[in-house]
Design brief:
The chain has 617 residues and is of the alpha+beta class. 24% of the residues lie in helices and 26% in strands. α5 packs across α6.
């Protein structure tokens, strides 16, 4: 994994840590408000008994493969119906830093931003079973056999140390590799001499030490009467095998009420004849069917801002509403139908007065990452921006792709912007976007390159007040600046970063520092302007723009279009499966936004997934 990938993984970690703020809005509930069903709570983050990998495989095939794909590559038959890309959990880059406890929490509580429901229809043990199986998708039998051989050769008497379910549920493969190389009280540093592939093969084998043993085969007497398979099979009408309970095939839907409220804080009446649109997505009793849109219905907004829909709802369906007011599209949060519900209440949509005055905006924190392995310095600047005022701030983009309150360093080439994964939702407008007041920060990543020299000087003007600045430099690189304090070397995502911090500065002030030294132990990174992913302009920012993860960053749109539309066939310039997934995700984004034709999209995606499957085998 080169520094570019490590930087993006580190950004993802910091974004999650920086966004632990409440999402609750200071709104007055409408009459007869019923609080939404809370997210399922988690029990102990380890299983009571060893996971059954075969049972997990059956559950994955039934409930997960339709979206995630048979091998977890995000290419299941239902994945194309989703408005977001499915994360390829079957790739090592995605699975090696995941612990069973982390994935168990996702399966239990869901991830509605990515249209994944909570799988409460599964028992606690079944969720652990399917998580255990999912964590094997990135490994092959040959790798596990290699890992077993190396483990028994180097630490054959320490297997018992890795059978503790509570400990192992909290550890990722990255954690296991680090423990092997550093040692522990229960075992020596037996992995210090292993190569990277060998170490991860051992980690994959160690994971299997927590799995339940397969049941012993049962001998069947030759004189035992065989059951006629046809007679034992339930009919289409649902006839059950004698002695077994009748399985519930479907759940009947009932006419129910979906209600919500538009909280009008503009001080003016809502536009007359205002319409609200209800969107419904169905998982039903079979989440493996994928969350496809089943309802798109318009209704009237009452003068007091309330609205009501009479629809048929079923447990686990997902609903949201949207409304257009003064050229801006506002969406509610997702609401999931709980078991036995006859009424569903959508969280209020809050409409604020608008202004083009950006004085209410401020940068709570600016985090700047550098990749210095290539010919130019690549800059990833992560802004956490707040709007603590009482008005929605309108940002007009005109014909440019520059955000008027974000600057790039002097001499740098700005490449584009992207929202962070946990950003407060931007509201798209005809000529830009809007930022309503929010307790949750808005997150933006600005991408740029700057010529590199022995002493690379960075000078940047703050167009908004900045609360604090943190630099994340590769180990071996130092920063010299009057306001920056050396925080030393810190480890993140298995890599070391040299950290520097600076106190905040006022609007229109500048900060500057000089980079010296060279990064240690990094491979040459490609120029981000020449890679296969897309730099999405700020005009695409909005509530529907959700990152597939910060494992990829945005690259040149014209390069993608040339590759897709070109007539000349070329060899695939991909060194690993991660690069291919970057290209697939970028291609999906281009097609979703209408930037390429259906024919070119289908042809290119088939080529990429074919290469991905060949490399995955």
């Amino acid at each position: 994994m080169n520094l570019r990938h490590i930087v993006l993984l580190a950004i993802g970690t910091l974004l999650l840590a920086a966004c632990n703020v409440t999402l609750a809005a200071d709104v007055t509930p409408p009459p007869n408000y019923i609080p939404p069903t809370p997210v399922p709570t988690l029990g102990p983050l380890y299983p009571e008994q060893a996971p059954d990998i075969e049972n997990g495989k059956a559950i994955f095939t039934e409930k997960c493969a339709a979206c995630h794909g048979e091998k977890g590559l995000g290419d299941g038959p239902q994945s194309a119906d989703l408005p977001v890309s499915v994360i390829p959990i079957g790739l090592p880059e995605f699975a090696r830093d995941a612990s069973p406890a982390k994935w168990y929490a996702t399966v239990t509580q869901g991830n509605l931003e990515r249209f994944m429901p909570p799988f409460m229809s599964l028992t606690d043990q079944e969720r652990w079973d399917v998580v255990a199986y999912a964590l094997t998708l990135h490994s092959t039998n040959e790798q596990i056999e290699l890992g077993k051989t190396l483990f028994e050769k180097n630490c054959g008497d320490c297997s018992e140390a890795f059978t503790n379910l509570q400990m192992m549920s909290a550890l990722s493969e990255d954690d296991l590799v680090r423990m092997m190389r550093e040692g522990s009280g229960n075992f020596p540093a037996f992995g210090s001499g292993l190569g990277e592939d060998e170490a991860y093969a051992v980690a994959a084998y160690i994971r299997t030490l927590t799995f339940a043993l397969p049941p012993a085969p049962v001998a069947v007497s030759a004189t035992e009467t065989q059951v006629n398979a046809e007679a034992a099979t339930p009919s289409a009408e649902g006839t059950a095998v004698e002695g077994t309970p009748q399985a519930q095939i479907t759940e009947e839907a009932a006419v129910s009420i979906i209600r919500g409220q538009i909280e009008n804080r503009t001080g003016e009446d809502l536009p007359s004849g205002l319409k609200v649109t209800l969107h419904g997505y169905d998982h039903g009793t079979d989440p493996s069917a994928g969350p496809t849109e089943i309802l798109n219905q318009q209704g009237d907004v009452n003068p007091d801002g309330s609205y009501v829909f009479e629809v048929e709802i079923v447990e686990s369906q997902i609903y949201l509403t949207e409304v257009d007011v003064n050229g801006m599209n506002y969406q509610s949060e997702f609401a999931v139908v709980p078991a036995g519900a006859s009424e569903l209440v959508i969280e209020p949509i809050v409409i604020f007065p608008t202004t083009d005055d950006t004085s209410a905006l401020q940068v709570r924190e600016l985090q700047i990452f550098f990749d210095l392995a290539g010919q130019d310095a690549q800059i990833f600047a992560v802004y956490f921006i707040t709007n603590e005022g009482e008005e929605t701030v309108l940002i007009k983009m005109a014909d440019t792709q520059n955000i008027p309150f974000i600057s790039f360093p002097e001499g740098a080439t700005g490449l584009g912007f992207e929202t962070t994964d946990n950003s407060a939702p931007f509201v798209p407008t005809e000529d830009g976007f809007a930022m309503p007041p929010s307790e949750e920060p808005y997150g933006l990543i600005a991408f740029a390159t700057i010529p590199k020299s022995k002493e690379t000087k960075i000078i940047q003007t703050a167009l908004l007040p900045i609360g604090s600045i943190t630099l994340f430099l590769p180990e071996g690189v130092e920063a010299k600046g009057a306001s920056f304090i050396d925080g030393g070397i810190q480890s993140m995502q298995g890599a070391n970063f040299h950290i520097y911090t600076s106190p905040g500065i006022d609007k229109d002030s500048s900060f500057e520092f000089t980079l010296t030294g060279a990064p240690q132990n990094v491979a040459e990174s490609p120029d981000i302007t020449q890679n296969q992913t897309v730099l999405i302009g700020v005009g695409a920012l909005g509530v529907t723009l959700i990152l597939a993860g910060l494992f990829m960053f945005l690259r040149d749109r014209n390069k993608i279009n040339d590759d897709v539309e070109g007539d000349d066939e070329k060899d695939e310039p991909y060194e690993d499966t991660e690069s291919i997934m970057d290209a697939v995700i970028a291609l999906d984004d281009l097609h979703r936004t209408g930037k390429i034709s259906d024919e070119a999209y289908k042809k290119r995606r088939a080529e990429l997934t074919g290469v991905l499957k060949r490399k995955g085998n």
